[in-house]
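Quick review question:
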């Protein structure tokens, strides 16, 4: 398309020039014109960021690879590498498992040892309790020989507790002579036997020494009072004994359980 050029245009007058001098409109037109996007700050920021990223990416892709130098020759196949890695893992885990197992075994052994000590302690307590079992009073049996000891408290205070007690002979006394009851004895000793029920009474004077196995017996009100006291003491004894036996039973069961676990761990 050809441009039209007016060569013979008439000269512009002064009035016409003044009429077209509108600087305010020209300024508004300039302000409304938008800047190109490549001159805006956000575009410049993105451009700088992209440039830096490109530089870093280029550096990463072109940097030399670090090689681990090993004195061992490289393995020819991937399978060999996997085997070596597995060996390494196994060799690393095995000591940890062994240490944990050893620690567990030690804890079990200590528990078993502690239970054994406690069992021995409770067993000794049981023995002491049984040794303190109250002795049931025996009522005198008219069919058997019996005697009492006429004690002078001032001369034999240790025998005063037997003042109301009769001593009944057991079947183990084969050489008893009823005439011995009419003699005067200078020394009398009474000792409880190991069975906890019978006693040994020794009589001495200038001419002879006698020894009898006897059972303490009571008569009348003395027996009645003694049996009442015995019943009360026996109930207390039975309660303590039952509690201790139950404790012993529980300990024995726990000991057997822990010992079995320990034996299984050892195997």
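Suggested answer, residue by residue:
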């Amino acid at each position: 398309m050809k441009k039209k050029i007016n060569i013979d245009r008439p000269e512009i007058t002064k009035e016409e020039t003044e009429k077209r001098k509108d600087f305010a409109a020209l300024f508004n037109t300039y302000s409304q014109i938008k800047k190109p996007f490549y001159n805006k700050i956000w575009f410049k920021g993105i451009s700088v960021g992209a440039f830096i990223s490109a530089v870093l990416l280029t550096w990463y892709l072109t940097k030399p690879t670090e090689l681990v130098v090993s004195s061992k020759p490289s393995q020819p196949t991937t399978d060999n590498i996997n085997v070596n890695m597995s060996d390494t893992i196994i060799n690393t885990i095995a000591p940890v498992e062994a240490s944990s197992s050893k620690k567990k075994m030690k804890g079990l052994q200590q528990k078993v040892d502690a239970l054994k000590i406690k069992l021995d302690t409770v067993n000794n307590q049981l023995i002491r309790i049984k040794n303190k079992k109250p002795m049931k009073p025996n009522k005198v049996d008219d069919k058997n020989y019996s005697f009492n000891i006429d004690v002078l408290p001032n001369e034999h205070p240790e025998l005063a507790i037997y003042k109301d007690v009769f001593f009944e002979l057991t079947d183990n006394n084969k050489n008893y002579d009823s005439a011995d009851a009419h003699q005067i004895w200078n020394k009398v000793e009474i000792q409880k036997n190991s069975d906890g029920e019978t006693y040994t009474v020794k009589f001495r004077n200038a001419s002879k020494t006698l020894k009898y196995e006897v059972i303490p017996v009571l008569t009348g009100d003395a027996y009645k009072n003694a049996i009442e006291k015995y019943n009360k003491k026996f109930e207390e004894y039975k309660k303590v004994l039952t509690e201790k036996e139950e404790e012993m039973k529980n300990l024995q069961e726990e000991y057997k359980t822990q010992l079995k676990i320990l034996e299984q761990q050892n195997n």
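Why it works: The mean pLDDT is 76. The chain is about 50% helix and 10% strand.
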